[in-house]
Design goal:
Blueprint (H helix, E strand, L loop, with lengths): L5 E7 L6 E7 L2 E5 L4 H12 L4 E5 L9 E3 L16 E6 L14 H22 L4 E5 L25 H19 L3 E6 L2 E3 L5 H11 L15 E3 H10 L11 E2 L8 H9 L13 H11 L2 H8 L7 H7 L7 H4 L6
Parallel strand pairs: 3-4, 3-6, 4-5, 6-7, 7-8, 8-11, 9-10
Antiparallel strand pairs: 1-2
Helix pairs in contact: 1-5, 2-3, 7-8
């Protein structure tokens, strides 16, 4: 690999006085999925911290430096023209959840991008001398819910849907590549990520709130781990060259679990409407959801899914820099 200078980047933690020093290679970081929700914010922060990057996107977000388009990501994608002088790859690009997936074989479609596409990139990265490969997985590789204890990195993997299955298989393939080569593998497993530009369930809930439509969750007392976009990106940047980042899969969150009613109220805090919550008993809510074919949606909003991120915080000497209240101040529609 080309010899490079290193620099010490002091990153002041925003919610306290603690500072840490992170060694960042003075080379280029390649970010796939750069035009997506997480990639957009990550590349902004890399720019702010004066870290050279190359953003990769399927779209023509910009064809100007430092962004490039590579088209579809699969087992045949040729990365040779963009991996030159890259020190670290942050792989965000993925086939994500699709609300109404009409493909004949959804798992095969997820595998094409999330497994075969990921491993193809990792193999070509090793050939080009890339040092580190940071893979953004999902907490869903452990399952959809917790019971008595939060998920830990050492817990058994038990994915239930095609998206999570494909992420688990990608993790396993990357670990095998890491064993056989000098490529350092970093695996990050986040929960639901919120922030400006979030899509999916967060965008739908925010739209419902902004229209003043009541939601039947006042009697829900669950606990769910979340992570703000800035906290996730801060962790990714910490992992660019942290020596402990490769030691175990990294479970990350805001380290402040909340209920669905609180989550909805936080979403509403910067809108012109207040959250309207109706006291519907959980058994009735589940029954109505079953009739409407929305059982899985209601499960995600009413059950527990908690993460123990203490090991990640210890390994990286990392604390989520943005607190919960501040993290939701983006939410004006």
């Amino acid at each position: 690999m080309i010899a490079t200078e290193t620099l010490l980047l002091k990153r002041q933690k925003l919610h306290g006085q603690k500072s840490i020093e992170v060694r960042i290679m003075d080379d280029t970081v390649m970010v796939t999925g750069a035009s997506g929700f997480i990639g957009n914010r990550l590349t902004d922060l890399l720019s702010q911290e004066k870290i050279a990057f190359l953003g990769i996107s399927r779209s023509d977000k910009t064809n100007s430096i430092p962004f490039r388009s590579v088209g579809d990501i699969n087992e045949k994608t040729d990365w040779s023209n963009v991996l030159t002088n890259i020190t670290t790859v942050v792989h965000l690009a993925a086939r994500a959840h699709i609300m109404q997936d009409h493909t004949h074989n959804p798992l095969a479609s997820f595998r094409k991008t999330n497994v075969q596409g990921t491993l193809n990139l990792a193999r070509q990265a090793t050939e080009q001398g890339v040092k580190r490969f940071i893979f953004i997985s999902t907490i869903k590789v452990h399952g959809e819910q917790t019971t008595n204890t939060p998920f830990k990195a050492t817990d058994i993997l038990s994915p239930t849907d095609p998206y999570a299955i494909s992420k688990k298989e990608a993790e396993e393939g990357l670990i095998e590549i890491g064993r056989k080569t000098e490529l350092e593998i970093v695996i990050i497993r986040p929960p639901l990520v919120y922030g400006k530009g979030a899509s999916g369930n967060i965008a739908r809930l925010q739209k419902i709130i902004s229209h003043g439509i009541p939601l039947p969750f006042k009697m829900i007392h669950n606990k769910r781990s979340l992570i703000g976009i800035d906290n996730l990106c801060d962790c990714i940047i910490t992992c660019l060259n942290h020596p402990n980042a490769t030691k175990a899969p990294l479970l990350v969150s805001d380290n402040n679990d909340i209920s669905t009613p609180k989550f909805i109220r936080l979403l509403a805090q910067s809108t012109t409407k207040s959250a309207k919550l109706l006291p519907v008993p959980l058994p009735l809510l589940r029954f109505l959801a079953k009739l409407a074919g929305k059982e899985q949606d209601i499960k995600r909003l009413t059950e527990n899914l908690q993460i123990d991120c203490s090991e990640t915080m210890h390994l990286l000497n990392w604390i989520p820099p943005v607190n919960l209240k501040r993290g939701f101040q983006w939410s004006s529609p």
